[in-house]
């Protein structure tokens, strides 16, 4: 069985195609294809509240390319989810309808709570009875989820994101609201561990030169990497550190968001599991279609 997940974010759009097999009573997930295209829809939306004509044309071409891959791999089922940029764009739903009509690809524009729920599905193997603060920083929004005893006890989405921070001054009210939410819902009597998801924290983790099998960062290490990145110009981050241009400008504001959330929770450590929205979508698709799997 083959499944496809598309994540239409504010900074990039990702496609993953996975082959799921059953062998010797074991279910195996094998990634067949992964494409990340740096189409920054958030740059338009967070500035003008609309997706520009140029971005719309590129988006339509990209959806055609993804649909061709989905068809070529003979995918059994797929799900396409769009997050903050398309849900805030005045023409987001119109463009989604155009894609459905012209290409036959159905796009679901999901709210922040649904986005958090899908990411949380992918985190199930990392949550136990201990207290956790999950921080997912995207281009246009940050989703926070607080866990205690294997249960989510609080959740909220905030309009704070890495792309949004590039063209706008920080909104003190939103930042204070995010920090207040954490302080109100985190019991500081207990040490809380953070879980960080998103492309930027994965890149920060990679830059930290982690030891084998280590999937966590101390807050001091995140501060160190953030300061190191800030010591370079944008051009130096691209040419010396070899970061993609669409990563080189957003990674510093993203780091500041992770750090602000950790400090509000008085957290000292962050697990970086390298999962995201597409992984949650893939799990939903599997549960929906597992009866079709040859057992």
Task: Describe the protein's architecture and organization.
Pfam families: Ppx-GppA. It comes from Echinicola strongylocentroti. This is Phosphatase. Residues 34-282 form the Ppx/GppA phosphatase N-terminal domain. This protein has 13 helices and eleven strands. The protein is an alpha/beta fold and 295 residues long. The longest helix is centred in the first third of the chain and has 20 residues, at 53-72. The termini are close together. The strands form two sheets. A six-stranded mixed β-sheet has the order 8-7-6-9-11-10, with helices on both faces. The protein is globular and about 50 Å long. The chain folds into two domains: 2-112 and 278-292, 2-Layer Sandwich (Nucleotidyltransferase, domain 5); 128-274, Nucleotidyltransferase, domain 5.
Number of domains: 2
Number of strands: 11
| Range of strand content | 15-25%
How many helices in DSSP terms? 13
CATH level 3 topology of the largest domain: Nucleotidyltransferase, domain 5
Instruction: Work out the radius of gyration.
Output: 19 Å
Strand order of the largest sheet: 8-7-6-9-11-10
Using the alpha-carbon principal axes, give the shape.
Answer: globular
**Structural class designation:** alpha/beta
CATH architecture of the largest domain: 2-Layer Sandwich
Question: Stretches where pLDDT falls below 50 for ≥5 residues?
Answer: none
- Following the backbone from N to C, one meets helices and strands in this order, namely EEEHHEHHEHEEEHHEHEHHHHEH
What characterizes the major β-sheet? 6 strands, mixed
The CATH C-level class name of the largest domain: Alpha Beta
CATH superfamily of the largest domain: Exopolyphosphatase. Domain 2
Distance between the termini: 11 Å
């Amino acid at each position: 069985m083959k499944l496809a997940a598309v994540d239409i974010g504010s900074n990039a759009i990702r496609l993953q195609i996975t082959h799921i097999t059953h062998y010797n009573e074991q279910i195996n997930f094998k990634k067949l294809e992964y494409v990340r295209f740096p189409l920054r829809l958030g740059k338009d939306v967070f500035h003008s509240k609309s997706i520009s004509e140029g971005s719309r044309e590129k988006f339509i071409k990209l959806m055609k390319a993804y649909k061709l891959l989905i068809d070529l791999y003979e995918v059994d089922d797929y799900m396409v989810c769009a997050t903050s940029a398309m849900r805030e764009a005045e023409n987001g739903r119109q463009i989604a309808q155009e894609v459905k009509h012209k290409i036959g690809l159905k796009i679901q524009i999901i709210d922040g709570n649904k986005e958090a729920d899908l990411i949380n599905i992918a985190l199930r193997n990392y949550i136990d009875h201990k207290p956790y603060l999950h921080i997912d920083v995207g281009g246009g929004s940050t989703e926070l989820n607080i866990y205690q005893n294997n249960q989510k006890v609080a959740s909220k989405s905030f309009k704070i994101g890495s792309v949004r921070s590039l063209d706008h001054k920080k909104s003190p009210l939103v930042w204070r609201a995010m920090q207040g939410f954490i302080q109100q819902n985190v019991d500081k009597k207990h040490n809380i561990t953070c879980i960080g998801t998103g492309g930027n924290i994965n890149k920060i983790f990679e830059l930290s030169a982690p030891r084998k099998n280590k999937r966590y960062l101390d807050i001091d290490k995140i501060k160190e990497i953030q300061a190191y990145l800030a010591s370079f110009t944008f051009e130096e981050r691209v040419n010396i550190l070899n970061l993609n241009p669409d990563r080189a400008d957003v990674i510093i504001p993203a780091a500041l968001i992770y750090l602000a959330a950790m400090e509000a929770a008085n957290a000292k450590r962050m697990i970086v599991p390298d999962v995201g929205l597409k992984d949650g979508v893939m799990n939903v698709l599997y549960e929906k279609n597992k009866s079709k799997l040859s057992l």
